[in-house]
Design goal:
Blueprint (H helix, E strand, L loop, with lengths): L5 E5 L3 H13 L3 E5 L2 H11 L3 E4 L8 H8 L7 E5 L4 H10 L3 E4 L4 H16 L6 E4 L2 E4 L4 E4 L2 E3 L3 H12 L4 E3 H8 L8 H15 L9 E4 L3 E4 L8
Parallel strand pairs: 1-2, 1-3, 3-4, 4-5
Antiparallel strand pairs: 6-7, 7-8, 8-9, 10-12, 11-12
């Protein structure tokens, strides 16, 4: 992760914000702070951070709702940092548009690694101009995705998954390969992250997400972007 990134830390605990400010500043980053959800939304507009570290248990607006509101207009990577460890909380956060989820207590090294992964996905510039399968089109140079000429807003994670599937259209991409290529080797067992993002992608690009036209599930193996546009569950 390059130094000089703008990082917004959103947490109602002063001690956590102080700790993260010291750790991130030591790495050369500029740190902004917010103690609640409304402050976070205002800070994103005012400071345009490169990445957001967001707690779920905020005193005014729950972190999941903050994520959902941000995703209506911002694609800034969001890493959830929370004491909530239940899988349903992780799924809800990812479903709202978060890029990653780290439970408290956490190590600084792991947080930095996850930040590097999120920022790398956003800044990657893969080669190849335009990919197209049926009515689904991806302009890689502009990072623009359209379905039947209608623009689709994707998170950086969803974009990278779809790009990998489109670059290998018609081929089966295993769960482990997708996790390794999009998130990194440390994520190869994080199946729920992949399932949630695939579900989100289907809701955005499929005419009927319950009967996918594009992203087909290969049970127990992975996913395949269909080139024949037949519908399968």
């Amino acid at each position: 992760m390059e130094t000089g990134q703008r990082v917004l830390v959103v947490d109602d605990e002063t001690s956590i914000r102080r700790y993260l400010r010291a750790a991130l500043t030591a790495q050369g980053h500029t740190v902004y702070e917010a103690a609640n959800g409304q402050e976070a939304l205002n800070a994103v507009i005012a400071n345009r951070p490169d990445i957001i570290i967001l707690d779920l248990g905020l005193p005014d607006i729950d972190g999941i709702e903050v994520t959902r509101q941000l995703r209506e207009w911002s694609q800034t990577p969001i890493i959830i940092l929370s004491v909530r460890e239940a899988e349903q909380d992780k799924i809800a956060a990812l479903d709202a548009g978060a890029d990653d989820y780290l439970s408290k207590p956490f190590s600084t090294g792991e947080l930095m690694a996850r930040m590097r992964v999120a920022l790398r996905r956003l800044s990657s510039k893969p080669d190849g101009p335009i990919l197209q399968v049926g009515g689904l089109q991806m302009d890689i140079s502009r990072r623009v995705v359209t379905v039947d000429e209608n623009p689709i807003s994707l998170t950086p994670t969803e974009y990278d998954i779809l790009r990998l599937l489109m670059q290998n259209a018609g081929k089966v991409i295993t769960h482990h390969h997708l996790l390794r290529q999009v998130w990194g080797t440390a994520y190869e067992s994080e199946m729920h992250i992949l399932r949630v993002n695939i579900s989100n992608l289907r809701r955005k690009i499929e005419p009927d997400p319950a009967r996918p036209t594009y992203i087909h599930t290969e049970p127990g193996v992975g996913y395949r972007l269909r080139t024949d546009q037949g519908k399968e569950t």
